[in-house]
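Q: What would this complex look like in 3D?
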Amino acid sequence: MAGNTFFKDVNKCFDRAATYLSIEKGLLSQIKACDSTYHVTFPLVRDDGSVEVIHGWRSAHSSHKSPTKGGIRYADNVNEDEVNALAALMTYKCAVVSIPFGGAKGGIRINGKNYSDGELERITRRFTFELIKRNFIGPGIDVPAPDYGTSSREMAWILDTYRSMVNTLDSEGCVTGKPIAQGGVSGRTEATGRGVYFGLREVCRVKKEMDRLGLTTGLAGKRVIVQGLGNVGYYAALFLQEDDAIITGVAEMHGGIYDEKGIDVKKLREYIVETGSIKGYPEGRFVEDSKSMLEWECDILIPAALEDQITTENAPKIKAKILGEAANGPVLEDADAILRKMDILVIPDIFINAGGVTVSYFEWIKNLSHIRFGRMDRRYEENAMSRLLQAIEGLTGARFSENDIARLGKGPEEWDLVDSGLEDTMVMAYERLRETRDQYKTDLRTAAYISAIEKVALSYQQLGIFP
Ligand code: NAD
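A: Here is my prediction, written as structure tokens for the whole assembly.
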């Protein structure tokens, strides 16, 4: 979906889904359109004294709900079409998992690796300043989050800049994915990957589906290839591996590693972080042409890098049975048409990578309510459970061991509650997605768009704008 076709591709999926619904044309056009896109340029004085003009975008796709929500990415191919497409995906994603936000996305056209930390901080703060100036950011307006090339560090800079200019009671809710000490929530860093894991676990739980693909149920023993071992790819691979899936391949920017026996993803990630590249990793087989790994034999393929990875050229060669779109838009629309005719279960991005925005929603709620999840009820629940265990002991004469008491009587920490909310969101959303797919006799992507369009249309209708 490179160049200027990404948004068109998203709209093609939308149009295909809309044919299943009887929604008025004008309303469909309103849902599809990007409400506003802001393109900003500003000068960066580099560490060596030279000056460079930086380009950034922020697009608010749909304000049928407020605030709008979406990540900010730093990559050298960021452009307006991409940002609009990603903002639209956010609208549909939020609707699929019932998160009450409109979609948004931002991006700055830089390769973060080419700038010093100080330069990145200046870029982030200036971009935030430009957003504040145009009223394009705020806890009730538009709330950014991390995406490709950004992390909690950039989110902390955004918060600090926002708070120094707009210091209200709710300022902390102007951005999510922050460090915990700056109002972040436990579990946000790993949320997207963890959501991918929960989603795929659900996919593999359904016997009818696995029988059709010639696979057994459950994740144990499933061979997985992951493209991109960044935030999303790493945590997806890690949680899958902890549930006994075998990560046979990791395709990264400067090559890949393949090992039929399984790759220790934690060790590999540490190596990449330490050396800056996958090259030279001492275990497994090094693969020069990492993109070719998308076509290799495996049960589950997880593109978790960028859009535009599966094209009409490599789609017919894909051998995976399940393709989980952890990245946004990794499959071109023409390639998707090919995959729909093959025996591959494609799990669409607007469902499978929704874990990030789900936990961002929890973080935003935490910021607005000014209290950590579990603070009021953790000890209360522990005491109630302790009384229950004592009552059981009294009635049955059984004695619980210290270990049992510690395990059964533990009240929920913030992480437990966030994780439970994330699991519930992914499990329920997949169940609804399958129902919609079966009802309309279509594929999962079209079903996801049908469900999203229905929800957004209803929201506009209830605003009284459309009949
Ligand atoms: P990231 O920057 O943390 O990691 C991306 C990884 O992909 C890096 O390790 C990079 O080296 C690798 N990569 C880049 N180009 C590659 C290529 N051509 N081949 C192989 N590897 C390549 O980014 P991320 O946050 O993990 O985001 C990845 C994708 O997931 C993006 O499409 C993003 O929009 C999507 N996503 C991210 C989140 C989130 O919470 N971060 C949420 C939803 C969706």
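A: To summarize the key features: The longest helix spans residues 414-440. The chain has a mean pLDDT of 96.
Q: Very helpful, thank you.
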